[in-house]
Amino acid sequence: MHGQLLVNRGLRAPADARAFLNPEIGQLHDPFALTDMRSAVDILCSALRERRRICVHGDFDVDGITSTALLVRVLRMLGGDVTFFLPDRFTDGYGITVANVDRIADSGSRVLIAADCGTTAISAVRRARERGLQVLILDHHLPEDTLPEASALVNPRRPDCRYPDPNLCTAGLAVKLLHGVLLAVNAARIDAFLRSLLKIAAIGTVADVVPLRGENRVIASIGLRELARPANAGLAALLRVAGLAGREITEYDIAFRIAPRLNAIGRLAHAGPAVDMLLSDDADLVRVTADAMERLNVKRQAIQGEVTEEAMSQVETRRRGPELPHGLVVHGRGWHRGVVGIVAAKLVERYHRPSLVLAVEGDQAQGSGRSIPGLNLVAALRQCQHHLTRFGGHAMAVGLALPVGAIDEFVETFELVLAQLLPAGPEDQALEADAAIELAEVDADLADFCSSLGPFGLGNSRPTFLAAGLRLTRPPRVAKDKHLRLWVGDGAGRELEAMAFGMASRQAELDAAVGGFSALFSVAWNVWAGRRSIQLQIGDFMAPSRGES
After folding, report:
1. For residue 549, what pLDDT is reported?
2. Could you say which architecture CATH assigns to the domain 318-421?
3. Which residues pair with 488 in a beta bridge?
4. In the CATH hierarchy, which top-level class contains the domain 435-542?
């Protein structure tokens, strides 16, 4: 079974399998293999020697926050005069602008690092050069035909970059840039230094939903292990409010407990304090910031719930009978711009369609989109750009803006484009089994091996098994109004606990399954009150009707 699970992940060579199962710092590629990395490192080293002020211009999402914190913290440790600037989501908008360049230049900065933005900022970079700034762009968003005239543009997506792993987010690229600087200054114990950076880089990597293979797997795996022992006061405070202090941290914890709290401050207020928290060793400051972040997250959840309900109501109202369009576009006046990206992700999860959610203010609509595997959402919007005032992002996530009066024509064009890119239509997300299995084969060894294949996410899903002839051994219980807690058996005395997340509405199907049912599930360890037990996590099930049993 172990071999089959590895082969299913394309790991046929023993060396590849060993590397996958044992991620280590030594598997990271040479940072200087990235186009323009040598120039970027030379400029930073020169600025450090000459004490020229460096400003890191980040973004207000988790990738932008974590990459900014990494760059500022390490460059300051190396003696740099380093400050940072994060735009305000509501007054500045996304990315580098001419106005913000002027503010940074007026503050005395002479080197500008654009982190998680800048690849398409032609006019802002031109303005920076006019103001005497050297501009280093560190970004992973898809470039347009013309690149800005930066002093260095490190982006594995640029067409002339042959880097072996193009899927790094900006937090990962920040690690690469800092690795290059540490090599250039002949720093001691570089591997240990890098391991410490991966705690924060892992948060940005998991939160930005990049494929967890290659270097991203190394960053996430080592970072998750190191997060259990946070030396950084800000990280420790963040883990405390997320209820994770003293626990082993998983990719689920980052995606659903840590990242939402970091995101909340940038979605509803200003993300700057989140960076300050990750930089500070002041116990009082980080405690106050973490507690404020927690309150904002509770508020964000309430706002998000309201907008999600309205968005899903629009989708259901616009159904063409039983069919959905290839893509979903919803919009609402008064919707909070800070939550539209999360709502788009909820629509993708529910309907498995590329989804765009637009907040209408005055005569303008601004929003975010999320995609499905196999569809490059930026490429799709590029074919609709005559309707848009701006757009950008990467394959799985975008931001966009357009006049309210153009929404209907945009929706029509967007649907035509998706019909060409997805000619068969997006299917409901189907789970494919790695292997058929008997319940008797589910044991501690299998649970341990499945765990060793993590962290799981895009590009590395949990192993999924198919078992038939299952029966309920106890009545199901509804958990938190939406999940089902089950106990299943095979008729031969074996009983295992199972969770069917989000499937409370399907309880009647199981109640009617008098002849047993088949289930697709993953195998995981459930840790509760210090005790571990095997748990089946059901992705789908099929119960025959009474006439079929």
Report:
1. 43
2. Roll (3.10)
3. 472, 496
4. mainly beta
Contact 324, 415 (CB under 8 A): no
> Is residue 112 a contact partner of residue 133, using CB atoms and an 8 Å limit?
yes
Q: Are strands 364-370 and 355-361 parallel, antiparallel or unpaired?
A: antiparallel
The answer to whether residues 373 and 367 touch, using CB atoms and an 8 Å cutoff, is: no
> Whole-angstrom Cα distance, residue 442 to residue 421?
40
Dist CA 177 CA 170 (whole Å): 10
Count of other CB atoms within 10 angstroms of residue 423: 8
Positions of E strands within 465-530: 465-472, 477-479, 483-489, 495-500, 517-528
CA dihedral 457, 462, 466, 472 (to 10 degrees): -100
Tokens 């705690």 belong to residue: 199
DSSP run (H or E) holding 97 = none
pLDDT digits (tens, 9 = 90+) for 310-368: 999 999 987 766 678 999 999 999 999 999 999 999 999 889 999 999 999 999 999 99
In the chain, where the domains are located: 21-227, 230-317, 318-421, 435-542
Q: Check residue 463 and report its DSSP letter.
A: P
How far is Cα 458 from Cα 464, in angstroms, rounded to an integer? Answer: 15
CB 183 within 8 A of CB 31: yes
Q: How far apart are CA 376 and CA 22, in angstroms?
A: 31
φ, ψ at 248 (rounded to 5°): -70, 135
- CATH of the structural domain 21-227, one choice from 3.40.50.1980, 1.10.290.10, 1.20.1640.10, 3.90.1640.30: 3.90.1640.30
For the chain, how big is the Rg over CA atoms in Å?
24
The per-residue pLDDT for range 502-520, each reduced to its tens digit, is 899 888 888 887 778 999 9
Residue ranges, the chain, pLDDT below 70 = 320-322, 424-431, 544-549
Can you tell me which residue has the tokens 């997006």?
Answer: 426
Cis peptide before 403 (omega within 30 of 0): no
The Cα–Cα gap between 348 and 467 comes to: 27
